[in-house]
Design a protein that fits this description.
Thrombin, subunit H; 0% helix; mainly beta; 6 strands
Amino acid sequence: MTKTNDTVAPPPPFDRRRHARIPHPVRVQIISHGAFDDKSYDGMCTDISLDGVAFETKAKLFLQNTVELVFEIKDKEFRRPARLLYRVGQRYGAYFVMPE
């Protein structure tokens, strides 16, 4: 069972971001790794930077969990773990973390 929550944190202020976000509307696969199984959800990336990403999905994800994001940049597959920071409606913001 995937945990979810209804707590919504506001997006971080723009002055806290180290790198500017740029629009990048591409499909994204969100993979939630659980103790017994993995769940995969579809989404749409809205913007991205060197440090983080924003995306929209109908999935109900648990804030502060780490998910794996898979999308294409310049015809290359890009996989990065990201920690979910905030949710506003169906939009999530996450920052990239180092693989564990």
